[in-house]
Specification:
Layout (H helix, E strand, L loop, with lengths): L3 H27 L6 H23 L3 H26 L20 H9 L11 E2 L2 E2 H21 L2
Antiparallel strand pairs: 1-2
Helix pairs in contact: 1-2, 1-5, 2-3, 3-5
C-alpha cells in the first residue's frame, strides 16, 4: 500500500514546480519581461523535478533515491539562486554566463550586427518584482521550502 503522506508531498512538490514554471513563462511571454541567462538556468531544476515525479508515477522508483535526487536538484537550484541574488545585490560580479548567446550556429555578418544592436539582459537587472521581491528572491524561498519538504520525506521513509 502506498504511503499517502509521501504521495501528498510528491504532488505538492509537483504542483509548486509546475506553478513556478508556468509563472515564469507567463511573466516572460504574456507580460513581456525578458529573462537573463541565470533566470533561464533557474528553470531547469523545476523541469527536472516535474519529469522525475512523472517518471516515478509511471515506474515507481525507490523513494529514497527519488527524494535524494529531489534534494540534490533543489540544493543546486538554491545555489544558483543565491549566486543570482548576489549578482543582483552587487555582492558578486556578473559572470560570463550572464552575457552568453547561442554561439553554436554559424551566423552571417548581418545577424551579428543585429545581435550587437539587441539589448542583452543583465543578470543584475531586476525587471519584475512581486511584493517588492525579485523573482530570484522568491525562488530562494521556494527552493528552501522544497528542500525542507524533500528532507522530511526522506527522513520519514
Amino acid at each position: 500500500m502506498p504511503d499517502l503522506k509521501i504521495e501528498f508531498y510528491l504532488k505538492l512538490i509537483f504542483v509548486i514546480s509546475f506553478i513556478s514554471i508556468v509563472s515564469a513563462y507567463f511573466i516572460q511571454y504574456v507580460l513581456g519581461h525578458q529573462p537573463c541567462n541565470l533566470c533561464l538556468i533557474e528553470r531547469i531544476p523545476y523541469i527536472l523535478s516535474i519529469l522525475l515525479i512523472i517518471f516515478n508515477h509511471i515506474s515507481k522508483i525507490n523513494k529514497k533515491i527519488l527524494f535524494s535526487l529531489l534534494i540534490l536538484i533543489f540544493v543546486f537550484s538554491l545555489g544558483v539562486s543565491i549566486y543570482h541574488f548576489g549578482i543582483e545585490q552587487d555582492f558578486f560580479e556578473e559572470s560570463t554566463i550572464c552575457g552568453l548567446k547561442d554561439s553554436t550556429k554559424v551566423i552571417t555578418k548581418e545577424e551579428l550586427l543585429k545581435q550587437l544592436n539587441e539589448r542583452v539582459i543583465s543578470c543584475k537587472d531586476v525587471t519584475f518584482r512581486i511584493f517588492g521581491f525579485s523573482l530570484t528572491t522568491i525562488n530562494i524561498f521556494i527552493n528552501l521550502i522544497l528542500i525542507i519538504i524533500s528532507i522530511r520525506c526522506y527522513k520519514n521513509l
